[in-house]
Amino acid sequence: MSILVTGSIAFDHIMVFEDRFRNHILPDKVHMLNVSFLVPSLEKRWGGCAANIAYNLRILDVDPIVLATVGRDFGPYVEWMDRHGIRRDWIRVLEDAFTAQAFITTDLDDNQISAFHPGAMERAHEAPISGVEADLSVGIVAPNGKRAMQEHARALKERGVPCVIDPGQGLPMFDGDELLEMIDGSALYVANDYEWAMTLEKTGLDDNAIASRVDAVIVTRGEHGSWLLEENGEKRTSVPSVAPERVVDPTGCGDAYRAGILYALDRGLSLETGARVGALLGALKVAESGPQSISMDPATFRERYQREFGEPLG
Questions:
Q1: Per the domain annotation, does 120 fall within a domain?
Q2: Tell me, what's the pLDDT at 124?
Q3: At residue 31, does pLDDT exceed 80?
Q4: Angle of helix 146-158 relative to helix 176-183, nearest 10 degrees?
Q5: Which residues are catalytic?
Q6: Which of 13, 31, 46, 58 is the most exposed place for a label (fewest CB within 10 A)?
Protein backbone atom coordinates (compact mmCIF):
# COMPACT_ATOMS: atom_id res chain seq x y z
CA MET A 1 0.00 0.00 0.00
CA SER A 2 1.09 3.57 -0.65
CA ILE A 3 1.09 6.91 1.13
CA LEU A 4 -0.82 9.52 -0.87
CA VAL A 5 0.57 13.04 -0.64
CA THR A 6 -1.68 15.78 -1.99
CA GLY A 7 -0.67 19.42 -2.00
CA SER A 8 1.37 21.96 -3.87
CA ILE A 9 4.43 21.59 -6.06
CA ALA A 10 6.24 24.89 -6.41
CA PHE A 11 9.42 26.67 -7.28
CA ASP A 12 10.77 28.41 -4.17
CA HIS A 13 12.74 31.64 -4.53
CA ILE A 14 14.61 31.96 -1.23
CA MET A 15 16.18 35.21 -0.11
CA VAL A 16 17.96 36.24 3.09
CA PHE A 17 17.64 39.73 4.55
CA GLU A 18 20.83 40.32 6.52
CA ASP A 19 19.08 42.31 9.23
CA ARG A 20 15.85 42.09 11.24
CA PHE A 21 12.45 43.04 9.89
CA ARG A 22 11.57 44.68 13.20
CA ASN A 23 14.30 47.25 12.65
CA HIS A 24 12.62 48.47 9.47
CA ILE A 25 8.87 48.13 10.01
CA LEU A 26 7.38 51.01 12.01
CA PRO A 27 4.40 49.72 14.05
CA ASP A 28 2.58 53.07 13.85
CA LYS A 29 2.91 53.17 10.04
CA VAL A 30 1.62 49.72 9.07
CA HIS A 31 -1.49 51.32 7.56
CA MET A 32 0.76 52.92 4.91
CA LEU A 33 3.51 50.32 4.68
CA ASN A 34 6.07 50.92 1.94
CA VAL A 35 9.29 49.07 2.67
CA SER A 36 11.96 47.34 0.62
CA PHE A 37 14.51 44.79 1.84
CA LEU A 38 17.89 44.36 0.16
CA VAL A 39 18.51 40.62 -0.28
CA PRO A 40 22.07 39.98 -1.53
CA SER A 41 21.53 36.24 -1.91
CA LEU A 42 18.89 34.48 -4.01
CA GLU A 43 18.41 30.76 -4.51
CA LYS A 44 15.80 29.04 -6.66
CA ARG A 45 14.80 25.78 -5.03
CA TRP A 46 12.45 22.89 -5.59
CA GLY A 47 9.53 23.25 -3.19
CA GLY A 48 5.82 22.93 -2.58
CA CYS A 49 4.35 21.06 0.39
CA ALA A 50 3.54 17.83 -1.46
CA ALA A 51 6.95 17.57 -3.10
CA ASN A 52 8.75 18.48 0.14
CA ILE A 53 6.89 15.80 2.10
CA ALA A 54 7.56 13.22 -0.64
CA TYR A 55 11.27 14.08 -0.69
CA ASN A 56 11.55 13.46 3.04
CA LEU A 57 9.57 10.22 2.81
CA ARG A 58 12.19 8.93 0.36
CA ILE A 59 14.80 9.46 3.09
CA LEU A 60 12.69 7.05 5.17
CA ASP A 61 12.69 4.50 2.32
CA VAL A 62 9.03 5.15 1.52
CA ASP A 63 7.76 5.37 -2.08
CA PRO A 64 4.86 7.87 -1.92
CA ILE A 65 2.30 8.84 -4.53
CA VAL A 66 2.18 12.58 -5.23
CA LEU A 67 -1.11 13.99 -6.49
CA ALA A 68 -0.76 17.57 -7.74
CA THR A 69 -1.05 19.94 -10.68
CA VAL A 70 1.87 21.83 -12.24
CA GLY A 71 2.34 24.22 -15.14
CA ARG A 72 4.08 24.33 -18.48
CA ASP A 73 7.34 25.40 -16.82
CA PHE A 74 7.56 22.14 -14.82
CA GLY A 75 10.35 20.67 -17.01
CA PRO A 76 13.37 21.49 -14.81
CA TYR A 77 11.60 19.94 -11.79
CA VAL A 78 11.16 16.61 -13.61
CA GLU A 79 14.87 15.75 -13.61
CA TRP A 80 15.14 16.56 -9.90
CA MET A 81 12.20 14.34 -8.95
CA ASP A 82 13.43 11.49 -11.12
CA ARG A 83 16.91 11.71 -9.64
CA HIS A 84 15.46 11.33 -6.14
CA GLY A 85 13.04 8.57 -7.02
CA ILE A 86 9.82 10.56 -6.55
CA ARG A 87 7.07 9.16 -8.74
CA ARG A 88 5.27 11.52 -11.13
CA ASP A 89 2.50 9.16 -12.31
CA TRP A 90 -0.34 11.27 -10.90
CA ILE A 91 1.12 14.74 -11.38
CA ARG A 92 -0.94 16.56 -13.99
CA VAL A 93 0.65 19.22 -16.23
CA LEU A 94 -1.61 22.15 -17.16
CA GLU A 95 -0.15 23.74 -20.28
CA ASP A 96 -2.03 27.01 -19.87
CA ALA A 97 -0.66 27.79 -16.39
CA PHE A 98 2.62 28.30 -14.55
CA THR A 99 3.73 26.03 -11.73
CA ALA A 100 3.13 27.62 -8.32
CA GLN A 101 5.88 30.01 -7.22
CA ALA A 102 6.88 31.03 -3.69
CA PHE A 103 9.04 34.06 -2.87
CA ILE A 104 10.38 33.74 0.67
CA THR A 105 12.51 36.28 2.54
CA THR A 106 14.01 35.27 5.90
CA ASP A 107 15.61 37.70 8.37
CA LEU A 108 18.32 37.08 10.97
CA ASP A 109 15.69 36.10 13.58
CA ASP A 110 14.33 33.41 11.19
CA ASN A 111 11.16 35.44 10.66
CA GLN A 112 9.75 35.06 7.17
CA ILE A 113 7.80 37.24 4.75
CA SER A 114 6.42 35.27 1.80
CA ALA A 115 4.49 35.90 -1.40
CA PHE A 116 2.90 33.05 -3.31
CA HIS A 117 1.58 32.75 -6.87
CA PRO A 118 -0.70 29.69 -6.94
CA GLY A 119 -0.66 29.13 -10.69
CA ALA A 120 -1.64 25.54 -11.55
CA MET A 121 -2.20 24.78 -7.88
CA GLU A 122 -5.50 26.67 -7.98
CA ARG A 123 -6.79 23.97 -10.31
CA ALA A 124 -5.54 21.02 -8.27
CA HIS A 125 -9.12 19.70 -8.16
CA GLU A 126 -8.59 18.75 -11.82
CA ALA A 127 -6.39 15.92 -10.51
CA PRO A 128 -8.93 14.08 -8.31
CA ILE A 129 -8.24 11.22 -5.93
CA SER A 130 -10.67 9.07 -7.91
CA GLY A 131 -8.01 8.92 -10.61
CA VAL A 132 -5.44 7.31 -8.31
CA GLU A 133 -5.56 3.59 -9.04
CA ALA A 134 -3.61 2.29 -6.07
CA ASP A 135 -4.22 0.90 -2.59
CA LEU A 136 -3.61 3.65 -0.04
CA SER A 137 -2.52 3.23 3.59
CA VAL A 138 -2.94 6.91 4.47
CA GLY A 139 -3.40 10.22 2.67
CA ILE A 140 -2.52 13.77 3.61
CA VAL A 141 -4.41 16.88 2.56
CA ALA A 142 -1.60 19.45 2.61
CA PRO A 143 -1.84 23.12 1.51
CA ASN A 144 -3.26 23.30 -2.00
CA GLY A 145 -6.09 24.95 -3.90
CA LYS A 146 -9.11 25.38 -1.61
CA ARG A 147 -11.51 23.31 -3.70
CA ALA A 148 -8.94 20.52 -4.06
CA MET A 149 -8.35 20.37 -0.29
CA GLN A 150 -12.07 20.08 0.39
CA GLU A 151 -12.66 17.48 -2.30
CA HIS A 152 -9.55 15.45 -1.39
CA ALA A 153 -10.64 15.30 2.27
CA ARG A 154 -14.10 14.08 1.30
CA ALA A 155 -12.72 11.55 -1.18
CA LEU A 156 -10.24 10.01 1.27
CA LYS A 157 -12.94 9.57 3.92
CA GLU A 158 -15.40 8.11 1.41
CA ARG A 159 -12.70 5.69 0.28
CA GLY A 160 -12.04 4.67 3.88
CA VAL A 161 -8.43 5.86 3.82
CA PRO A 162 -7.05 7.40 7.05
CA CYS A 163 -6.94 11.11 6.31
CA VAL A 164 -4.45 13.64 7.68
CA ILE A 165 -5.67 17.24 7.51
CA ASP A 166 -2.82 19.76 7.40
CA PRO A 167 -4.16 23.13 6.18
CA GLY A 168 -0.94 25.02 6.99
CA GLN A 169 -0.68 28.33 5.18
CA GLY A 170 -3.99 27.55 3.48
CA LEU A 171 -5.89 27.83 6.77
CA PRO A 172 -7.07 31.45 6.24
CA MET A 173 -9.05 30.31 3.17
CA PHE A 174 -11.53 28.36 5.32
CA ASP A 175 -14.25 29.55 7.64
CA GLY A 176 -15.09 27.62 10.79
CA ASP A 177 -17.72 25.36 9.23
CA GLU A 178 -15.54 24.51 6.24
CA LEU A 179 -12.64 23.69 8.52
CA LEU A 180 -14.76 21.46 10.75
CA GLU A 181 -16.06 19.57 7.73
CA MET A 182 -12.48 18.65 6.83
CA ILE A 183 -11.54 17.82 10.43
CA ASP A 184 -14.59 15.67 11.22
CA GLY A 185 -13.85 11.97 10.86
CA SER A 186 -10.18 12.45 9.99
CA ALA A 187 -7.38 10.36 11.43
CA LEU A 188 -5.26 13.38 12.34
CA TYR A 189 -5.31 17.18 12.38
CA VAL A 190 -1.89 18.86 12.25
CA ALA A 191 -1.13 22.54 12.89
CA ASN A 192 1.63 24.70 14.29
CA ASP A 193 0.88 26.66 17.46
CA TYR A 194 -0.21 29.79 15.55
CA GLU A 195 -2.47 27.77 13.25
CA TRP A 196 -3.91 25.94 16.24
CA ALA A 197 -4.87 29.24 17.87
CA MET A 198 -6.46 30.30 14.56
CA THR A 199 -8.32 26.97 14.40
CA LEU A 200 -9.81 27.51 17.85
CA GLU A 201 -10.79 31.07 16.95
CA LYS A 202 -12.37 30.12 13.62
CA THR A 203 -14.36 27.18 15.01
CA GLY A 204 -15.18 28.67 18.42
CA LEU A 205 -14.22 25.34 20.02
CA ASP A 206 -11.63 24.44 22.64
CA ASP A 207 -8.84 21.83 22.50
CA ASN A 208 -10.93 18.89 23.67
CA ALA A 209 -13.89 19.74 21.43
CA ILE A 210 -11.65 19.66 18.36
CA ALA A 211 -9.91 16.49 19.58
CA SER A 212 -13.27 14.75 19.97
CA ARG A 213 -13.94 15.16 16.23
CA VAL A 214 -10.72 13.51 15.05
CA ASP A 215 -8.63 10.52 16.08
CA ALA A 216 -5.74 12.73 17.17
CA VAL A 217 -4.34 16.27 17.02
CA ILE A 218 -0.70 17.30 16.69
CA VAL A 219 0.45 20.84 17.39
CA THR A 220 4.03 21.70 16.48
CA ARG A 221 5.89 24.39 18.40
CA GLY A 222 9.22 24.79 16.61
CA GLU A 223 12.19 24.57 18.97
CA HIS A 224 9.78 23.80 21.82
CA GLY A 225 8.79 20.47 20.28
CA SER A 226 5.24 19.31 19.72
CA TRP A 227 2.31 17.96 21.66
CA LEU A 228 -0.21 15.26 20.80
CA LEU A 229 -3.86 15.08 21.80
CA GLU A 230 -5.42 11.62 21.66
CA GLU A 231 -8.40 9.79 23.13
CA ASN A 232 -10.83 12.73 22.79
CA GLY A 233 -8.26 15.04 24.31
CA GLU A 234 -7.85 12.97 27.47
CA LYS A 235 -4.30 11.94 26.59
CA ARG A 236 -1.74 14.69 26.02
CA THR A 237 1.86 13.85 25.16
CA SER A 238 4.74 16.28 24.77
CA VAL A 239 7.55 15.41 22.39
CA PRO A 240 10.73 17.53 22.57
CA SER A 241 12.46 18.94 19.53
CA VAL A 242 15.87 17.78 18.35
CA ALA A 243 18.61 20.39 18.52
CA PRO A 244 20.05 21.04 15.04
CA GLU A 245 23.78 21.08 14.46
CA ARG A 246 23.35 24.59 13.04
CA VAL A 247 20.49 26.86 12.03
CA VAL A 248 20.63 27.77 8.35
CA ASP A 249 17.10 27.86 6.91
CA PRO A 250 13.72 26.94 8.46
CA THR A 251 11.94 26.65 5.09
CA GLY A 252 10.33 23.22 4.76
CA CYS A 253 10.83 22.10 8.37
CA GLY A 254 7.10 21.57 8.83
CA ASP A 255 6.93 19.39 5.73
CA ALA A 256 9.86 17.31 6.98
CA TYR A 257 8.01 16.80 10.26
CA ARG A 258 4.85 15.68 8.40
CA ALA A 259 6.86 12.99 6.63
CA GLY A 260 7.72 11.49 10.00
CA ILE A 261 4.07 11.41 11.02
CA LEU A 262 3.01 9.78 7.74
CA TYR A 263 5.75 7.21 8.12
CA ALA A 264 4.42 6.21 11.54
CA LEU A 265 0.84 5.96 10.33
CA ASP A 266 1.90 3.87 7.33
CA ARG A 267 3.97 1.48 9.45
CA GLY A 268 1.49 1.19 12.31
CA LEU A 269 3.79 2.96 14.77
CA SER A 270 2.71 5.31 17.55
CA LEU A 271 2.21 8.99 16.85
CA GLU A 272 4.85 9.70 19.46
CA THR A 273 7.35 7.75 17.35
CA GLY A 274 6.21 9.67 14.29
CA ALA A 275 6.72 12.95 16.14
CA ARG A 276 10.27 11.90 17.06
CA VAL A 277 11.03 10.95 13.44
CA GLY A 278 9.56 14.28 12.36
CA ALA A 279 11.57 16.20 14.94
CA LEU A 280 14.80 14.60 13.73
CA LEU A 281 13.97 15.28 10.08
CA GLY A 282 13.15 18.88 11.01
CA ALA A 283 16.49 19.31 12.78
CA LEU A 284 18.35 17.89 9.79
CA LYS A 285 16.39 20.18 7.45
CA VAL A 286 16.96 23.41 9.39
CA ALA A 287 20.71 22.79 9.15
CA GLU A 288 20.56 22.97 5.34
CA SER A 289 19.45 25.59 2.83
CA GLY A 290 16.27 24.91 0.88
CA PRO A 291 13.22 22.73 1.57
CA GLN A 292 14.53 19.60 -0.18
CA SER A 293 18.09 19.56 1.06
CA ILE A 294 18.69 16.66 3.47
CA SER A 295 21.26 14.36 1.91
CA MET A 296 20.98 11.09 3.82
CA ASP A 297 20.14 7.51 2.88
CA PRO A 298 17.59 5.46 4.87
CA ALA A 299 20.21 3.33 6.67
CA THR A 300 22.13 6.39 7.86
CA PHE A 301 18.90 8.01 9.05
CA ARG A 302 18.04 4.91 11.10
CA GLU A 303 21.49 4.99 12.69
CA ARG A 304 21.04 8.66 13.51
CA TYR A 305 17.59 7.98 14.99
CA GLN A 306 18.95 5.24 17.24
CA ARG A 307 21.78 7.47 18.47
CA GLU A 308 19.36 10.30 19.17
CA PHE A 309 16.60 8.34 20.92
CA GLY A 310 18.40 5.22 22.18
CA GLU A 311 16.10 2.79 20.37
CA PRO A 312 15.77 1.36 16.86
CA LEU A 313 13.26 2.83 14.45
CA GLY A 314 10.43 0.39 13.77
A1: no
A2: 98
A3: no
A4: 30
A5: 255
A6: 31
